[in-house]
Structure formats: C-alpha cells, structure tokens
Amino acid sequence: MAPHDIRRPFKRAAISDQQKRRELSLLRQAQNRRDAQQQARCLASSILSLQSAAPESQPEQSDIEIETVPESKQESEAFSKDLDVRQASKLRGPEVRKWFARQLMLPEWMIDVPDRLAQDWYVFARPAGKRCFVVSSNGTTVSRQRNGSILHHFPSALPAGAKIRDGSGSAQSYCILDCIFHELDQTYYVIDMVCWNGYSLYYCTAEFRFYWLNSKLEESGACNAPSHYHKFRFSAVPVYNCDQSGLYAAYTGVVPYAKDGLLFYNKHALYQTGNTPLALVWKDENCSQYVIDTDGKGEIPSQQQVVLELQDDRKLVTSDDPPVLFGCLDGDIIEKSGLHTGNLLRFAIGDGGLSFADGKLEKADLIYLGKSNRARAFADSYSKVLFQFMVRHSPLKIDDLLASINSANDQEKTPSDVEMVG
Question: Which residues pair with 347 in a beta bridge?
Fold first, then answer.
C-alpha cells in the first residue's frame, strides 16, 4: 500500500487548495517574524554604534544613519494596529465600523483535514453567539460585532476597563480580546487574546496567546460575577490538544454554553486579521443547530444561498484575499436594480451546482436573488461556500477527523517498527 493511502485513506477529490495555503501562511509568518527580529537587531546595532562612535556635537548623524535601515512592513503594520485601536475607538459612524470590521482574525471553514492535526493543532467547542472585539481603555470597555457596530459599552474588570476611585490606569494600559458574547448567560467567552495591559500579542503564537489568556484573565478578576464596576462576566473556553481524546472531549464534552461547532487553531499561528487557513471552523448536527445556513426567515432554503461582492467589470467575488471569482452579473440586472461596485448581493446556487478542476472553482450556476442584508460587512468566504456545498452533498464527518488522527499515529509508529524488525 502506498504511503499516502495509509495516511489519508478517506481522502476525497480536491475542491480546495486549503492545505497548500496553510503551509504558505506558516512560511510567510515565519519570514515576517524573522524580518521583524532582524529589523530590531539592525536598529539596536545602529544606535549602539552611533552612541559609541559619533561625537556629541553631531547628534544629527544618528537620525540619518537610522533612516537607512529599511523598516519591516509587517512590523510597522503590527505597531499601527496597537496604536490605532485607541484612536479608532474615538471615531464615529461608518469609518469606525469599517475599521473594526477588518481587525478580527476569521477562521476558514474546514474543507479538508489538516496534516499533523494531532501534533500541531488545538481544538475547542465554539460558543454560540455574537463574535466581537472587546477593547478596554481609558476607564471604559466597548465591544464591537463582526460588522464593526457597537454591541455593548460598559465597565469591566479588564485593565483600564472601568473608572474606579484609584484611577483607570495609564494611557498605555489597554486590552483587546477576541470574544463571543453568549446571550443565555450574558457572558463574554474569550477565544483569543490580542493585546493585554498594553502588551501586543500579534506576533505571539497561538500556543503562547492561549497560555496568557488563561493566566492573565483569571488574575484580572474579569472572570468574577458581575458587579458595579464589572457589568459582564468573562470566561475562557476549555482548549484541548487535537489528539483523539482532545477532539472527543471538545466534540462531546459538557460546557456551560450552547455549542456552535468546533474551532481548530494551529499552535504556531500568529494573530492575523482577515480570513486565515491557520484557524478553522467545522460543525455537524451533533455540535451545532446551525449547520446549514438559513434564509432571512430562519428557514433552510431548498437551494444553497451565497453572498458575493459586486466589483468592477461586473465580477462577483468572495471576501478572500485575493478574492475568488464566481462569475459575472448580467449588465441588464445591474442597470435595472441600480447596483453599484461594492454592493453585497445574494445568489442561489442552481441545479448546475459548483464545478471544480485541480482544486479550483471552474464554474458556478448562480441565480440572482437581490441585495444582501444591510448589516453585513463582507461577502462569504470561498471556504464557507464550499463547506455549505459539502454539507448538502458530501459532508466532512467527525469520523474523517478521527481517522486522520489515527492514521497519522499509525504512520508515526511504522518507521520504528520496521527498524526493530530489521
């Protein structure tokens, strides 16, 4: 039997390049960290050499020399996120909603089972509720939903999260948490930590972020019951190594919230805004009541529906970067409906379905239904469309995930067994 048959006995026809993009994302992140570290070393080296060699009468040479060191684009972007969040909190109207809507790290939907699932991934049960950013700063706390609109404005026990008698903390003290607000128990379940007490975690791995999340959140008192200076309770979710026992615990274990599928995080992944294949969401009817998307009436439509963005040249694309092209809209429809570039439009997938070639979308049978809900900020991602398509035709099952873990374990044992026999 060929090696790939042992590793992936359940492998299905490729409809996505998700695994390839996972590998490329990890390589890019590793390079970004090396670039940032090299930039810091060069800057420190330049400053030290100038301090020891440059005469005190010529301090202007320091500025010239430092400017010759090229700045890492990724490092600059990371710093701008930290510095802009407090300024963005003061913005109003569409600008602030648009800014916050682009700050969340959005998991892709699991199209295929990642390699080394048991070794390199965490898994946890995703709480049902409203995904949001929670920012505490200058004595107040604000939560913003995925589309950037405000959910709550409240005092909290997070650093700089409430105006209390001994002060609200320094201007540099602020926090950014990635949460899901669970309506039933009025609790913010923290699924990731982006900044804590002014310290950025953008360039920290998920392994480190989860460690800090559990220790720092408990120390702050944010997990305590609500009080005058702490309106909502915060809670961390139980996170497991994605081996067989961990996956089973996340899938079947009892949690204090309603589940809405499972979330998988690559242990080595940094926090990056937008869609990423290094965080994945998966669900079935046993761990979520929302497996198949519903329409505006809360009913499952007979045909799968998708939301796409209208671009120039009548192109219809997903929210991915780069976007995936699904087709072009008829010019007559655009003219009669008064549509413009940037509009989010809803379509049904007709009897022709979706066709794939070499892991890429080749053709989509789209039926125009009208404009999307105005509350939406983005079109659907390619992985979501594919996951919903798979759910209706050939779903990825929990047995497939367990089989991947078991076959990987068997493959790891094989070399040692062969050596012993030899």
Answer: 306, 368
